[in-house]
Amino acid sequence: MHTPSELKSLFLDYMQQHNFQLAPKELFEPVDYILQLGGKRLRPVLLLMSHNLYQTEVDSALSAAYAYEIFHNFSLVHDDIMDEAPLRRGKATIHQKYDINTGILSGDVMLIYAYKYLLETPDKNLVPELMTLFSKVAAEVCIGQQYDMNFETSDSITIAAYLQMIEYKTASLIAGALKTGALLAGAPAEDLYHLYEFGRNLGIAFQLQDDILDTYGNAATFGKRIGGDIVQNKKTYLVLKAMQLANNTQKQVLENLLSTYPKEEEAKIATVVDIFDALDIKAIASEKKDEYHQKAIAHLALVKVVEERKIHLQEIAKELLERVK
Ligand code: IPE
Ligand code: IPE
Ligand code: MG
Ligand code: MG
Ligand code: MG
Predict the structure, then answer these.
(1) What would the pLDDT profile of 87-144 be if each residue is shown by its tens digit?
(2) DSSP codes of every residue in 200-229
(3) d(CA 196, CA 171)
(4) Ligand 3 being an ion, which residues bring their Cβ within 5 A of it?
(5) Binding site membership of 2 for ligand 1 (Cβ less than 6 Å)
(6) Position in ligand 2 atom list of the atom nearest CA 170
(7) Residues 234, 317: Cα–Cα separation, whole Å
(8) β-bridge pairing 87-88 and 91-92
């Protein structure tokens, strides 16, 4: 059995052998740029880890792992346009470094390459099922992204609606990656279900942590602009919970700031963070994250492989939720 870092390094080798140094450079250089910027490689590593629960060799899962990573990076390129984000992994976002049209088309071609690599799965009998699953979770990312945008201009979002939105935009792809790895290894249907549910709950916890880091992280390690969600009026768990707990004065300030786009962005961020702090929002969001972490672990426990094989997945789940980047 491989450690997660061994799997990551196998994956990085595969990426290197299948890089995007292609012509025309105006289309592919940005693809190469974003893929080389790094990132945690979470989805491919999880895919290979779930494969590795059943099979020692992971070579036959590398192209699918690449498909998930390319799709994820495609979603980031378009997400950064939609969120007007200046920074990604500590460097300029594609639309900042190049322009918006570049972000659109280079993103589009990445989506196409994601399918191309999924098709390169050696076991052709499995390809239709992989494609069906991939298409489902990829469409859910778009559905989640649309809700995320819709919510920016609404002040009546419920916590249930938020949780559904993050399940779509973030958790589905993580769940899909875990199920794909196991599918490629010929895992039984019940395990496929529990691995998907492990990923779905982990993904929700992962996005809760992302929302916490967006406000409370450190720009140098997180690699994204701190306070970006507040500037964009994102209805994160932090905002929704603060609205629930706020007194009338705090509520009015939040409602006003989070429905407008004041020029003094840093002052807006500072005022909102002061209210969050007064209401202990960071700890409350962290508790919610732990709740989903527990649900995830409960599903992993039901996967029918010997306990010692699950240790790496348990560890990575824990690390992810304590992550600072
Ligand atoms: C960022 O994903 C987008 C979210 C779903 C929160 P990651 O945090 O996995 O980003 P990288 O790939 O490691 O940069
Ligand atoms: C992540 O949402 C969802 C997708 C990229 C599909 P965010 O907008 O919170 O992601 P970051 O924080 O920009 O990475
Ligand atoms: Mg974003
Ligand atoms: Mg976004
Ligand atoms: Mg975010």
Answers:
(1) 999 999 999 999 999 999 999 999 999 999 999 999 999 999 999 999 999 999 999 9
(2) HHHHHHHHHHHHHHHHHS-HHHH-S-TTHH
(3) 10
(4) 79, 83
(5) no
(6) 3
(7) 26
(8) antiparallel
